[in-house]
Design brief:
Elements (H helix, E strand, L loop, with lengths): L2 H6 L8 H55 L30
Length: 101
């Protein structure tokens, strides 16, 4: 019981048909609003997810087609070889590892 009902006494406990209809209409309006918001969320969310998936697939397909033309050019190794000198007469020192000896 709310504080209002407790202070009002028994006058509000059996409020009558008009109060019951009003409460029912408030609950009905709240239920309709909740259903509307859930439907709106699904209507906006599902198409955005579909558009996002189509974008990812299209980007993947087009990047796959574009990579074939790039491979026809001169391939550059992932790691450039270390030059023996730096161009100013200094030699580059390579670290010897135990597993290579």
């Amino acid at each position: 019981m709310s504080a209002f009902v407790m202070e009002a006494g028994s006058a509000n406990l059996g409020a009558g048909a008009v109060e019951s209809v009003r409460r029912f209409l408030y609950r009905l309006a709240a239920a309709i609003a909740i259903v509307f918001l859930v439907v709106l969320l699904l209507v906006l969310l599902v198409p955005m997810a579909v558009i996002g998936m189509l974008y990812i697939v299209a980007r993947s397909v087009f990047s796959g087609l574009g990579s074939g033309t790039r491979q026809a050019e001169v391939e550059v190794p992932a790691h450039q070889p270390i030059p023996e000198e730096d161009g100013e007469g200094r030699e580059n020192v390579r670290v010897r590892r135990a597993e290579n000896e």
